[in-house]
Write a structure and sequence with these properties.
Chain B: Its EC number is 1.14.12.19. The complex is a heterodimer of chains A (399) and B (106). Chain A has 399 residues and is an alpha/beta fold. Helix content of chain A is 24%, strand content 30%. In chain A, the strands form 7 sheets. In chain A, strands 3-2-1-7-19 form a 5-stranded parallel beta sheet, covered by helices on one side. A 5-stranded parallel beta sheet of chain A has the order 9-16-10-11-12, with helices on one face. The longest helix of chain A has 17 residues, at 298-314. Chain B contains no helices and 11 strands. Chain B has strands at residues 2-6, 15-18, 24-29, 32-37, 51-53, 56-58, 65-67, 73-75, 84-85, 87-90, 93-96. Chain B is globular and about 40 Å long. Classes of the chains: A alpha/beta (399), B mainly beta (106). The interface between A and B is medium-sized, with 23 and 16 residues.
């Protein structure tokens, strides 16, 4: 393999590039990124980045230096890659192994790593000024600037998932008046199950944030100046709003692959080794649908990139991605950590701490076996049990 | 010189976090005492809550790992070292001698 093109310059793309070089690939390496920034860490965007004053960073690009930067000049020199940033891939010709770019250029390449991530779902209808989604650094800068327009602001967060909850917590910490609207009767039930989701939902009320559940959103109302004034709920209620943040999930960024012939459906369909039906095309991160499931976790993106690259260089699925799913969320000063494969019906049992203190460790059980773990502000025992669970559920590596 | 705790209160495998600015984590790694800056250089997480294995501590959030002897990161996602601080024991009390801010590795 003499040339590899990585489409996507975020976490999975960077880790794929690192894995290529670490695994001895010394051919041409091209990395295409739709955003103009170097790879940066997205998790802080809904947390520390949002609550820090914009003046702290001055004119510096937060993706290039400081806590968001995932790489630095020294590493970039070592990776020896051509970075095409601010450039979008618009089509993939699998037969000729050609990637078409929005600059008009076409890259012909031996291997392709698909790492285009995902894009936020949006509400139907127009998006007035003051309405936001949060995925990119530029999104976060726009939201932060809007929140700093002056004085306490009425913020409505649409969607009570992890991003919504983190944004709500950050806005509350900034002194704004915050309401969260969730279509389901309770947020985070698919992730945590009902009883644990209920405990996490209490965090909103603890911090004076209103949680309105069981109602969808009909649309946003705007004033004559084009700025959002209210959120109209499906039941007809109006919530006054100066700023609206919509966090209702993401869609894997596969539009550009329509017509490529690759199997699509909630991401790029891959086998357990992150390999598409064409062995020279692999996928990693939020865009990858691996062995029947798509993860949107930071850790999965890094692990899948290494697996995908290993198989790309091997020319076949020589290794599979089997790591225990893990994610975390920081909200209202509480660190939520989850690991494992929870299925509906698994019974959570609190084995340490107390929900009243918002500090506990819970184990999900099925047929007497642990399937998953949840911790609120219990990082040390969580780390220990997570290791035990990984050992118990993962086959030992062979060879 | 910052008093930490009685040596007896920091058995092997345990750690303690000091609320200094910035916070410092003190570890007992199989009988050897080490002190490093507590906050992971990758993202906001307390290394005192990390997983201790030999002379390495693994960040509880993303599994970045640091060598307690040097403060150097031993794997990604951390790329910058944490500061180390000398530790002494006098009359059964553990003390940290804070390294000056100027010594911060770039």
């Amino acid at each position: 393999m003499k040339s590899v093109t990585v489409i996507g310059a975020s976490l999975a793309g960077l880790y794929a590039a690192r894995a290529l070089r670490a695994q001895g690939y010394d051919g041409r390496l091209t990395i295409v990124g739709a955003e103009p920034h170097r790879p940066y860490d997205r998790p802080p965007l809904s947390k520390e980045f949002l609550t820090a004053p914009a003046t702290a960073e001055g004119d510096a690009d937060p993706a290039a230096e400081g806590p968001l930067a995932l790489t630095d000049t020294e590493e970039l020199a070592g990776l020896d890659a051509e970075w095409l940033l601010g450039t979008r891939a618009t089509a993939l010709d699998t037969r000729h192994r050609a990637v078409r770019l929005d600059t008009g250029r076409t890259l012909t390449t031996d291997g392709v790593v698909l790492a285009t991530g995902a894009a936020p779902r949006r509400l139907p209808g127009p998006a007035p000024d003051g309405s936001h989604t949060l995925r990119t650094l530029d999104d976060a800068r726009a939201l932060r600037a809007d929140l700093a327009r002056g004085g306490p602001t009425r913020v409505v967060v649409i969607g009570g998932g992890f991003i919504g909850a983190e944004v709500a917590a950050s806005c509350a910490a900034l002194g704004h008046q915050v309401a969260v609207v969730e279509a389901a009767p309770l947020p985070l039930v698919p992730q945590l199950g009902e009883s644990m989701a209920e405990l996490c939902a209490r965090l909103h009320g603890d911090h004076g944030v209103a949680l309105l559940t069981g109602t969808g959103v009909r649309g946003l109302r705007a004033g004559a100046d084009g700025r959002v004034t209210a959120v109209e709920l499906a039941d007809g209620r109006l919530l006054s709003a100066d700023v609206v943040v919509t966090g209702i999930g993401v869609r894997p960024a596969t539009d550009w692959l329509e017509g490529s012939g690759l199997p699509l459906g909630d991401g790029v369909r891959c086998d357990a080794g992150c390999v598409t039906p064409i062995p020279a095309i692999v996928a990693a991160g939020d865009v990858a649908h691996v062995a029947g499931a798509r993860a949107e976790h930071w850790t999965s993106a890094t692990e899948q990139a290494a697996t995908a690259v290993h198989n790309l260089l091997a020319g076949r699925t020589a290794r599979t991605h089997r790591a225990l799913p893990y994610f975390w969320s920081d909200q209202y000063g509480v660190r939520i950590q989850f690991a494992g494969h929870r299925r509906s019906g698994d019974v959570p049992r609190i084995i340490e701490g107390s929900p009243d203190d918002r500090s506990f460790l819970a184990r999900y059980e099925r047929d007497g076996r642990t399937t998953a773990l949840l911790a609120l502000n219990r990082p040390r025992p969580f780390a220990r049990l997570r290791r035990e669970l990984a050992r118990a559920t993962q086959p030992a590596p062979t060879g | 010189m910052i008093p930490v705790c009685h040596l007896a209160d920091l058995p092997a495998g345990e750690s303690v976090r000091l609320d200094t600015t910035p916070p410092i984590a003190v570890f007992n790694a199989d009988g050897e005492l080490y002190a490093i800056d507590d906050t992971c250089t990758h993202q906001d997480a307390s290394l005192a809550d990390g997983w201790l294995e030999g002379c390495l501590v693994e960040c509880p959030l993303h599994a970045a790992s640091f060598d307690l002897r040097t403060g150097a990161p031993t794997c990604l996602p951390a790329r910058r070292p944490v500061r180390t601080h000398p530790v002494t024991v006098e009359d059964g009390m553990v003390y940290v001698h804070r390294t000056a801010e100027e010594d911060t590795a770039a």
